[in-house]
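Protocol step 4 of 5: obtain the predicted structure for the target chain.
Materials: sequence only (see below). No template structures provided, no constraints applied. The aim of this step is simply to have a reference model before the mutagenesis design in step 5. Sequence pasted as it appears in the construct record:
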Amino acid sequence: MPGKSLILDHHINECTKKIKQGQHVLLTTQDDEALRVISSKTIDEAKVLHCKINFALAGSPESVIKIVFNRIENFILNGLSITKKSTEKLLKSFALFTPEIILSASGTRIKLHEPTGYSIEKTIECALLALDDLSKQLNKKVCVTLEEFQILFGLKELDGLADNLKKILKKSTRIQFILFGSEKDKVLEAYGLIKNDQLHKLTFNRPKSADLARLIDNQPKESKFKNIKKSQLQSVMNLTQGHLLYTDILINHITKQNKFTDADLTVYWHELALSKQHEINKQLLSLSNNQKIAINHLAQNPTNQPFNVRNMPIHMNAASYMQAVKKLIKLDLLHVDYLDIYRLKDPTYEYYLNHILKM
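Step 4 output (structure tokens):
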């Protein structure tokens, strides 16, 4: 998200402070898109090198090793910029992995090999600690992001991984780790397994109107946010429900306007929701008929008692509706907000169903 933002910059500053203090962090929020923005900008602000490891495609223990090795190999070559002079340090730090430096017409490549007699969990531990050692030898500060790390805890073959991750977090001296994932409940379960003094959990909840007002009060006098009125903030919140990215987008939009009306904001929000038409339609088409009925019903009728007979769709039996709602929550399309109201997690989806599909 380009430019200065009110909410995310506040969270980025908090995360950056932890990284500069040498702490590892685990990020959680309801709004998955915000996690990647916060992580990426934190690394920029902390001025550290970035090794990104994404486990979204980790479907087997073998694929986990392949992902870790591939990202480390690429980072050593492109991030740490290994030269002939530093090759000896590479060979020493990664001696366990008998590294090869391969020269070909297509360019230079680094190849790591799995050590014999090591479990997959131990191999991952040793590889990341070897990277930490190499970073130390080269006097480099590095941040490794472990994106969708919670997937690893769903692989039965990696049942000992928690202990290995604890050791990595405890022993690393030149690498700070940022861990996050899009399945909040599973991320928190994984956090419970690896929780220790070296790992700091940062939870970024959706703000309320009063939270936004406090953020603006704390801005410097020359800040562009100082001219925003409380009534304007409420108009934003009515549309975004405090969604981290969308709230920042609409607030920034207000700061760019000489004159502002609620109608102008609604038009801008309409265009934003319309820009997601393909994504939303694709998601809707993937749902069962009962799930479509349930999501449309809750888009129109958010409630804190979804399973009360009076709050259910007329032509759908209770058991089918309950099953559909629970599945939609599992799919991350519905959530329970801070008022315990069941509603669509993405406010642009809610607006799209209620206003654009009915045009």
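Step 4 remarks: The first strand starts at residue 24 and ends at 29. The two ends are 30 Å apart (CA to CA).
Proceed to step 5.
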